[in-house]
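Researcher: I need the complex structure. Ligand is flavin mononucleotide. Inputs:
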Amino acid sequence: MDVNKKIVVAICGASGSIYGIRLLKALLKNPINIYLIISSAGHKVLEHETGYSNESFFSFLKDKGITFNKKAQLHTYNQDDFFAPPASGSFRNDGMVIAPCSMKTLGAIAAGIADNLIHRAADVNLKEKRPLILLPRETPLNIIHLKNMYVAAKAGATIMPPSPSFYSNPESISDLVDSVIARVLDQLQIEHNLVKEWGDSIV
Ligand SMILES: Cc1cc2nc3c(=O)[nH]c(=O)nc-3n(C[C@H](O)[C@H](O)[C@H](O)COP(=O)(O)O)c2cc1C
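Model: Output:
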């Protein structure tokens, strides 16, 4: 594993904050640097869906049983901090993941509106031709959502709706979520053992 790998992670106010948390859990097992931005709405939905209280994100991660690789680093930024590293194209990173991605943030990215650090970091990765992976969450999708996904994909984003797979016989919500996160890690070329590869003794 490349010890210098840098991944930007954003958690928006769409339902499914567990996707962002499981992604962090998987990433932090590796010796990589994570640059985390949680939107204001993301904080509120995280609180509603997981019981997290805004006081200490690090103790929340501990409560969730999330452990850090000795060489992993987690940097956290406010959504309004345009002085943070991910706001600049000169910050070389190995990819950004927005998990989950709200329709609002998707719309801002598709329209090129860099109104907060998440939008700006996504815009930067598109202009610098670096990986941008979106896990847009909404259902049903209206034509505006569909058009925004199309535009973001045309601009270079990878659109990965969080659609869990069932062919590996999941037994829990964690298994379902991990079936999505495994595909995200594949995109980032980060080794994992969250799910068995198809054809690898699946019954
Ligand atoms: C409990 C809850 C669940 C929500 N779920 C979604 C959702 O699944 N998808 C979505 O696009 N917005 C959802 N929203 C609305 C967003 O939070 C809202 O549009 C917000 O402005 C998004 O801001 P952000 O993109 O900066 O995080 C939800 C709001 C709440 C309170």
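Model: Summary of the prediction. Helices lie at 17-27, 40-50, 57-63, 103-111, 117-127, 143-154, 173-188.
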